[in-house]
Model the fold of this input.
Amino acid sequence: MITKENVEVFKTIETPFYFYDVELLKQTLDIYKFQIDKYGYNAHYAMKANANDRILEIIKSYGLGADCVSGNEVKLAVKSGFAPEKIVYAGVGKSDKEIKAALNAGIFSFNCESIPEIKVINDFAGQLGKKAKISLRINPDIDAHTHKYISTGRKEDKFGISPWMFNDVADILIECHNLEFLGLHFHVGSQITDLSVFELTCRRVEELQKWFIERGMNVRNINLGGGLGVDYNEPNEHPIAQFEEYFSVINKNLIVRPGQKIHFEPGRAIVAQCGHLISRVLYVKVGQKKKFAILDAGMNDLIRPALYQAHHDIENLTSDGRKMRYDVVGPVCESSDRWGNNIMLNKAERGDIVALHTAGAYGQVMAMKYNQRDLAKAYYSDQM
Ligand SMILES: *Cc1c(COP(=O)(O)O)cnc(C)c1O
Done:
């Protein structure tokens, strides 16, 4: 929640900047932790959603592991104090350097996405005199009903190993003596709000794990990835994701074998709502048919609308004037630098402070300096 006191401070700070509601992050983690402990599940935070050091520090303090998608993320996870034995590492294009560094770090699991990758990890593990623990990232051919750029589990997506490759994978694992097979990994997409997608995933997991079990392979771990969505339209009404419903769907639909461990990799659902991008109205430009509210925050600060046609709720924090329609745009020289068309905002004037809500996930971490703009700083509710 952004308080009146927060807004008074915002007025004195150079915009744009990220504002993190630390209390909300902690409340979210309290609820998340309660749910996973209830079922005995394990969680690895997907660092790519937000790798801000204070955010990582808070998440780590809840005992979560880390889910990484690059060698530098593995390095940062270790440096930030995440236990290596709780680090998982996925990615279709792991480089030689990244694989060796992760082997040396002693991570819990390489989530492997292709047969050639499995062979390369086996070779490097042999050279370093180590045993690499691997899981197979499976492409279950499920449509996550989300934007095509954040859908990862359909057969045309680049991620994971498809069922038609299973015979070859099983043969290769027999030959790879420097690998230890841990189990199966699934991550079908992001911003999934239709919980029936997870129901379907659980059913596919059962069909697919049977294949491996029938061939005598010990599937000790099932990792269901991340993907739970948040409410971008009404963030103030729904600041915490539907964790209870989500885990109840998983618990009802996933068949767990004795001794099997179940893992998750939440990203967005943990951090999205605690972050806000705070901006000033630079100009209100009145056209013949519409009004433009031109903000000082642009796509370089938060790229989701330009990249995924995503919507962020926008609120004018310093006006209680009559609601009017604006096309809300950023200052960057790209037509896709646009926060939304026909957005209802309290009457806007130059100098008004505006919040772009639900900006904690895939926001600051994707920021760049395009147009030679400054990178937005971060401020925290408990340090204001
Ligand atoms: C991005 C990603 C996640 C996190 O997804 P969210 O939708 O942010 O929860 C989890 N696992 C893998 C492998 C990912 O690539």
